[in-house]
Amino acid sequence: MTSLARFPFSAIVAQDEARLALLLAAVDPGIGGVLLRGDKGSAKSTLARGLAGMLPGGAPFVELPLGATEDRVLGTIDLKAALTAGDTVFRPGLLAAAHGGVLYVDEVNLLPDHLVDVLLDVAGSGVNRVERDGVSHSHPARFVLVGSMNPEEGELRPQLLDRFGLSVPIKAPVEPRARAEVVRRRLTHDAGGRVEGGE
């Protein structure tokens, strides 16, 4: 999770379609996740962080690091405790940490396919089930799944692409006035000033 000050969601310049898709997924995480497809510098991570700032109750923002193991993502069951004491001891993973907030997966196209499958399953059902050697544990894991990718770095398999509830192409503004507004809002925010929303 991060404690960095979040840039306000409503102050992000342009990206209307991406903002709408994220808001729809926040209203109903069962949509199954939002995929933001675009080049670097198009505010993909800023959008995801900003969305977490709009959710109630200090919602967590959890970023899945590239190279995370399945146990780190899903959590793991302590088999030694289960076999010796008969207790099911569950060590929570990133999905538990993201409950009630946003799970952001940058470069989702570079994750192993089976891990993307699991993330989409949990995002759609709101429950994470972990099973190991006949011992199982489940816990609520209701979060907004936001994946981002740069198509120039490789595509997701079509089967996985189709499983995202919403997929939005996203581009950095190219019009000079819009770009200047992006910089102005960022500098104002970083200096501790109030950033107004709207275009």
Topology diagram in text:
Elements: H1 16-27, E1 34-38, H2 44-54, E2 61-63, H3 70-74, E3 75-78, H4 79-84, E4 89-92, H5 94-97, E5 102-106, H6 113-125, E6 127-132, E7 135-140, E8 144-149, H7 158-161, E9 166-170, H8 176-190
Parallel strand pairs: 1-8, 1-9, 2-5, 5-8
Antiparallel strand pairs: 3-4, 6-7
The helix-strand sequence is HEHEHEHEHEHEEEHEH
As a percent range, the share of helical residues equals: 25-40%
For the CA atoms, what is the radius of gyration?
18 Å
Unreliably modeled segments: none
Number of helices: 8
**Could you report the average pLDDT, rounded to the nearest whole number?**
87
User: N- to C-terminal separation?
Assistant: 30 Å
What fraction of the residues are assigned to beta strands by DSSP?
Answer: 15-25%
- The total strand number stands at 9
Supply the helix-strand structural class. Answer: alpha/beta
Shape: elongated
Q: What topology, given as strand order, has the largest sheet?
A: 2-5-8-1-9
Largest sheet: 5 strands, parallel
Structure in words:
This protein has 199 residues and is of the alpha/beta class. Strands 2-5-8-1-9 form a five-stranded parallel sheet, sandwiched between helices. A two-stranded antiparallel sheet has the order 3-4. Strands 6-7 form a two-stranded antiparallel sheet. It is elongated. The two termini are 30 Å apart. The model has no long low-confidence stretch (mean pLDDT 87).
